[in-house]
Design goal:
731 residues, alpha+beta, Ubiquitin-like_domsf, Son of sevenless (SoS) protein, Chain S, domain 1, Son of Sevenless (SoS) protein, Chain S, domain 2, single chain, globular, five-stranded antiparallel sheet, five-stranded mixed sheet, RGL1 protein
């Protein structure tokens, strides 16, 4: 006989039971059966029977997948899912159940209600269709327990009493004495008891308690930093990232878990995720401190350090380490580094192009489509797939990649964890925890598991790395004293002021400007903006403050506009090339994260929920100095004209002459409190006094437009008159 078959699936609707709702799918298999022997006698060619002599049989099976249910039903389904052909259910449940239950609650249900064979012989066991005997039930429970220990053994780490592990051990002694699983649980208990309370790995800590006696935190000596080869720095950063990422407990990333981290009682919540964030912050701050920490550096020396970090970022790309790659790019896009326009002019053209290409990986276009596609493409590939539009960079990349291949060592992939945290928080926000009847929405957990599975896949790929720690670099890295945002901004201003007074011949100045402006021929020539000083509150993770409560994806923009005290007539137009556009503040917000707003109650600008806000940590520095965020308008905003969703307004203080004003860039996202706060900062007034002032637009000598408290300035203003505003103290 010969056989062939064809499988089709059909939606079978829903089945509702007491305490559970199931999605039903009908699997229909068509089997064609033919008797080969004597086929030719029946008119067939070769061994093929004519259609009228082919026997067709149909087999239909039902696949049930639980959609929602009580906790009891979900736990019971662990024992019946295999019989219902829902083969992934156990893995999904174990990866996500911490969002709606504790390990103890699940274990008690599994062992006391379903595992107590004597008590349940006339109860639940009789109602479990797929279980026909006591032995089958015991095997099913053993299978679930084995999967639990394999996939989520950390669930049983509950020092100091380890109640769940002791309860499990007691069950195994009574029901499966001398089994391999009993030995395994005993060994796990000993392992947990012998280990100290698990602490976050100290690679990225800047606490003095992590240093050897006599060591102190220090600002990096440029010579010390330059002594490390680029590929060595990248390998060591990757080594630290790999060690931390492999330890990430996937359920710590769940939106319902991670979103509770800001509460005081949850300061120790999700420690494995916090550890990766601390490392990310440490890399970012290390980049800034090496560039700004030494006041005596000359312009060219500072530019060389920037070039070195760009090369290190490129080496991270070759190693498929997207975490440190993004940390370095974020640091180079921070306010304090971004504003070093004279220093950036000394960075070579080829390296600026390399920097732009690396930055484009994290473009916020289409919800970070580029980085997502690249991550999935390289998740399990042996080596990075490097493409460059610049021939010279392409040659260098291929040469370095060939060296990696010649070593015969495959590379894993370290992701930027913030992408997954963003997706999981989005899912948690968008989908309900419970459905009608108070049933747990398990469809939500299936969706979350799709993201968790990607994290697990990447963790598995990290086993391919073969990196050896360099204690000299690690000790140097740990000794770095991280600058606060205020310190870095102050040092940045000093460095730029020194650069401005540095003796440069007119010819050399002209050649540098020409080189930068022709670097991206055909685009607008752009002058980096002057920056406003950071707010008085330090960025989390600066001196005296912990960074580990950050969200990985918490780099955000602050608008930075030009600050002018113009004595020209109000009616005279300004040269648009003297105006500057939006700046980039990549300061790491270690308390809020990219999803939560300042109050943690909603999406912040630039998050996945607000793609049009134009504020995101993944903006691409492009054009001119390679420093213009991708969200900046292509047409430079100018005074008295709304263009590309932005414009420049002039704000003067009530009581002062109208020609003494501050120029402020506003976008179509800005409301009165935002603009008022920036205007106060520009006028060196206390920004917290927003409620004490009102913003009005001057229409004519005897007319003015007063804005409501939460009005959108861009859309509410009169665009037919001069964009002149007054900041007036309320009566």
């Amino acid at each position: 006989f010969s056989f062939s078959w064809q499988t089709t699936f059909q939606d079978g609707g829903e089945e509702v039971e007491d305490g559970a709702v199931y999605n039903v799918t009908l699997k229909k298999v068509q089997i064609q059966q033919a008797a080969n022997k004597g086929a030719r006698w029946l008119g067939g060619e070769g061994d093929q029977l004519p259609p009228e002599h082919t026997v067709r049989q149909y087999e239909t099976s039902k696949i049930r997948a639980i959609k929602a249910g009580t906790l009891e039903k979900l736990v019971e389904n662990l024992l019946t899912a295999f019989g219902d052909a829902d083969f992934s259910y156990i893995s999904i449940f174990l990866a996500t159940y911490r969002a709606f239950a504790s390990p103890r609650a699940v274990l008690e249900l599994l062992l006391d209600r379903f595992g107590n064979l004597e008590a349940s012989s006339h109860g639940e066991v009789a109602n479990l269709n797929s279980l026909e005997s006591e032995m089958v039930l015991r095997v099913e429970i053993a299978s679930v327990l084995r999967a639990w220990l394999d996939q989520c053994s950390e669930d049983f780490r509950e020092p100091p009493d380890y109640m769940c592990l002791l309860k499990l051990l007691d069950y195994l002694k009574n029901n499966m004495p001398n089994s391999d699983m009993e030995s395994r649980v005993q060994n796990l208990l000993k392992q947990f008891q012998n280990q100290e309370v698990e602490a976050v790995d100290g690679f990225c800590s800047t606490s003095s308690s992590d240093l050897v006696d006599g060591e102190e935190l220090e600002i990096s000596n440029p010579e010390d930093f330059s002594s490390f080869q680029d590929h060595v720095v990248a390998e060591q950063l990757t080594y630290m990232d790999v060690m931390l990422f492999r330890r990430v407990v996937p359920y710590h990333c769940l939106g319902s878990i991670w979103s509770r981290r800001d509460k005081k009682e949850n300061k120790n919540l999700a420690p494995t995720v916090r550890a990766t964030i601390t490392q990310f912050n440490a890399v970012t701050k290390c980049v800034i401190s090496t560039i700004l920490g030494t006041r005596e550096l000359k312009i060219q020396q500072r530019a060389k350090i920037i070039e070195k970090w760009i090369h290190i970022a490129h080496e991270c790309r070759i190693l498929k380490n997207f975490s440190s790659l993004r940390a370095i790019i974020s640091a180079l896009q921070s306010n304090s580094i971004y504003r070093l326009k004279t220093t950036w002019m000394c960075v070579s053209k080829d390296i600026l192009l390399m920097y732009e290409e690396l930055s484009e990986i994290f473009s916020d276009h289409d919800n970070y489509l580029t980085s997502r596609e690249l991550l999935m493409k390289e998740a399990t590939s042996k080596f990075a797939n490097l493409d460059s539009s610049e021939k010279e960079n392409q040659k260098k990349s291929q040469k370095r990649l060939q060296l990696q291949k010649n070593k015969g060592v495959m590379q894993g992939t370290v992701p930027y964890l913030g992408t997954f945290l963003t997706d999981l928080i989005m899912l948690d926000t968008a989908l309900q925890d419970y459905v009608e009847g108070g049933l747990i929405n398990f469809e939500k957990r299936r969706r979350e598991f799709e993201v968790i599975a990607q994290i697990k896949l990447l963790q598995s790929s990290c086993n391919s790395y073969c990196l050896i720690p360099d204690q000299k670099f690690i000790q140097w890295f740990r000794r770095q004293r991280h600058l606060t945002e205020e310190e870095s901004y102050k040092l940045s201003r000093e460095a730029e002021a020194a650069a401005d007074t540095n003796i440069l011949s007119p010819k050399s100045q002209k050649s540098m400007v020409k080189r930068i402006s022709t670097l991206f021929l055909g685009t607008d020539v752009f002058t980096p903006p002057k920056e406003q000083p950071p707010k008085s509150s330090p960025v989390g993770g600066s001196s005296g403050e912990s960074t580990d409560s950050a969200s990985v994806s918490s780099c955000e923009f602050n608008h930075s506009e030009t600050e002018d005290v113009c004595m020209t007539p109000v009616s005279s137009p300004e040269d648009p090339l003297k105006k500057s556009s939006v700046g980039s503040d990549k300061g790491y917000d270690s308390d809020k994260g990219s999803i939560s707003s300042d109050k943690g109650s909603g999406p912040s600008k630039g998050s996945i929920f607000d793609p049009g806000s134009g504020s995101d940590s993944g903006s691409i520095p492009t054009r001119d100095l390679g420093l213009v965020p991708s969200s900046a308008p292509k047409v430079l905003p100018v005074y008295n004209r709304q263009s590309g969703g932005s414009c420049i307004i002039r704000v003067s203080m009530d009581g002062l002459h109208a020609s003494v004003y501050k120029s402020i860039l506003i976008t179509n996202q800005d409301r009165i409190p935002d603009v008022t706060q920036r205007a106060l900062l520009k006028h060196n007034l206390e920004p917290d006094a927003v409620e004490d002032y009102e913003l009005v637009q001057v229409i004519s000598e005897d007319k003015e437009l007063v804005f409501p408290r939460d009005a959108n300035v861009f859309y509410g203003m009169n665009s037919n008159v001069n964009f002149d505003f007054i900041l007036r103290k309320k009566a």
